[in-house]
Design brief:
This protein folds into two domains: 132 residues, Alpha-Beta Barrel (N-terminal domain of MutM-like DNA repair proteins); 123 residues, Helicase, Ruva Protein, domain 3, CATH 1.10.8.50. Helices cover 23% and strands 20% of the residues. The strands form three sheets. Strands 1-6-7-5 form a four-stranded antiparallel beta sheet. The chain has a four-stranded antiparallel beta sheet with strand order 2-3-4-8, with helices on one face. β9 and β10 form a beta hairpin.
Amino acid sequence: MPELPEVEVVRRGLERWVSGRTVDEAVVLHPRAVRRHLAGGEDFAARLRGRTFGPARRRGKYLWLPLDDPGFSVLGHLGMSGQLLVQPEDTPDEKHLRIRLRFADDLGTELRFVDQRTFGGLSLHDNTPDGLPDVIAHIARDPLDPAFDDDAFPVALRAKRTTVKRALLDQSLISGVGNIYADEALWRSKLHYERPTAGLTRPRVAELLGHVRGVMNEALDVGGTSFDSLYVNVNGESGYFDRSLDAYGREDEPCRRCGTPIRRRPWMNRSSYFCPHCQRPPRTTL
């Protein structure tokens, strides 16, 4: 699933190519693509027609486009394979095209939602007073958000009484971090993924948070991480951060710090990649 850097790359593309444009026609081609819009595809299309998109916004892995109809936004979730593509109107339809938005201008491009596995989708939601779609009001701020509270984070992290990787993936604590960037930040911090949060000092947490931000910003600089053609930006281009990964996906390859082969272990229906020398397992676990 795309994490914060990949979603931010898409948000920037929407900001450039879609924000400020008025919808002339919305066409829902697959009902699963709007399954989170409980009123259905016809209602979704009708309510978008004639509406103008505001500045694209994001929190964690979620992005949305506010509408000129006060109090409403279109929320997008990419799921495992969702793509928001800005395409010339005469471009042939993609095999897995699910939603098409045409605009009331002469720019000659349209917005398409393409999703091979149909886990993602678009939906229309009420906004909270803070301007968030109501269904994501519980999502915490992400580490690149200027309003993220660095002072409160160590206290909240230790209070979770869990292990450090579980805490990093807890979207109610810190949003936008997924499996890839958690493993990368933990490798940089020399922390084992099963390290209990209760024993982490404030300086240690601050160091970890710095590495989370560092790896995400580096990924943003090169367009995110793409392991296949499913994650692309709005112009269909892949990111290149997979070439810079230090831990994730490097099983049996030498650690770039000490040369010890990177190991992979099953973890919560995922995998954790770590260096057994640099990231020593804790003596006690939860």
